[in-house]
Amino acid sequence: MSASTGNTESDSPLASRFGTFSLVFGIGFAIFYVICDMAALPLFTYHPGTDRIDFGYAPARRDEGPAMYWYGWLASSALGASALGFIATLLPEKIRCRLPLALAWVLPLVLLPVLIYSLNFYWRW
Amino acid sequence: MDFVLDYISVNTFWTILFMTHALLAVALLGALTHQAAAVLSRPRAAGSAGGFITRFRSVSGPSYATAVCVLWVITFILGGWIYTKYRIYVRIPIEQEGFYKTLGAFELKEHLTTIGLGFLPFYWHLWKNARNAACDSARKWLTVVLAGICWYAFLAGHVVNNVRGFGL
After folding, report:
1. Within an 8 Å CB–CB cutoff, is residue A20 touching chain B?
2. pLDDT at position B45
3. In A, residues 47-76, which contact B (CB 8 Å cutoff)?
4. What is the pLDDT tens value at each position of chain A, 125 positions in all?
5. Residue B107, min C-alpha distance to chain A (Å)
6. How far apart are CA A124 and CA B47, in angstroms?
7. Per-residue pLDDT, A2
8. Residue spans per domain, chain B
9. Which residue has the higher pLDDT, B69 or A14?
10. Closest among A55, A47, A104 to B118, alpha carbons compared
């Protein structure tokens, strides 16, 4: 029983395994995505000019147009977040229910300045 | 999808795709804005009629949750599909014009909508437990954050479309 709210553990949305998975997936996905973006860690690279797909990071090829990493970042982040979410569901309910729900909305706000900074190449005045 | 191009031109195909993406984004924006207004406002007194703003925010939030998730995912998939053409036919000309802040704003849109996508399962779970008071604060603020992301994405996409022009 939580003294401050009067809620029991079974009241927590994290009492269900799906609730835990979805929260940890969201947190993990956001963090992995920012890491993948800033550290250039795509699972694959797509070359839209030639429809070529390379595993991992691959620079743009001469005369073949640009390379796209966003799809690869999505895949890397989804894989990492799914694994993290699955592991979290294996934790005992007591521990799962201690995860702060507020992370779901605080984390995007915290990551916003990081993302803006990661795009500093574009902020030319 | 190549068989479609037997009936319509390549330009028409991408135009239809883009228009569908834009229209779904409008629907998503409307749904999330209603929902965010509903969670931010105090419950209306029973029997009070209220004006436009009162009626605007007096929607049943839970009934919007699944629609918001479906709209976000479909809009995201269509955006991701169009993104291949954006990279070659939109971004490169804008780079050549030197509108870097516009491109940066668009890159930020892509990052924020992706992060929002990751939180959709939890958002859905919170709304499916709408009677659970333990979820109230997280549900309220996650909805507001997603609505903010949606508004930003809508405006950034609109600006890029205005900069590049349409059907060029």
Report:
1. no
2. 58
3. 48-49, 65-66, 68, 70-71, 73-74
4. 344 444 455 678 888 999 999 999 999 999 999 999 999 999 999 999 999 999 999 999 988 889 999 999 999 999 999 999 999 999 999 999 999 999 999 999 999 999 999 999 999 76
5. 8
6. 55
7. 41
8. 2-164
9. B69
10. A104
How far, in whole angstroms, is CA B139 from its chain's centroid? 18
Q: In 3D, which of B143, B118, B168, B157 has the Cα closest to residue B31?
A: B143
Tell whether A31 is covered by a domain. Answer: yes
Interface of B with A in 50-69 (CB under 8 A): none
The answer, yes or no, to whether residue B54 has pLDDT greater than 80, is no
Q: Do A29 and B118 touch (CB under 8 A)?
A: yes
Q: How many domains does chain A have?
A: 1
Residue A3 lies in a domain: no
H-helix or E-strand spanning residue A55: strand A52-55
Distance (Å, rounded) from C-alpha A106 to C-alpha B150? 17
Q: Please judge whether A48 and B126 are an interchain contact, meaning their C-beta atoms are less than 8 angstroms apart.
A: no
Residue A87 lies inside a defined structural domain of this protein: yes
pLDDT at residue B60, as a whole number:
72
Instruction: Check if A10 contacts B (Cβ < 8 Å).
Output: no
Q: Does A124 touch chain B (CB under 8 A)?
A: yes
The distance of B48 to chain A (nearest Cα, Å) reads 31
Nearest to A122 among B104, B112, B122 (CB): B104
Q: How far apart are CA A46 and CA A56, in angstroms?
A: 10
Residues of chain B by 3-state class (helix, strand, coil), percent to 5 = 85, 0, 15
**Residue A10 falls within a domain, yes or no?**
no
Closest-CA distance of chain A to residue B47, Å: 31
Q: What is the pLDDT of residue A5?
A: 43
What range defines the domain where residue A50 resides? Answer: 15-118
- A79–chain B Cβ distance below 8 A for any pair: no
- Angstrom CA distances, A44 to B32, B80, B101, stand at 33, 15, 27
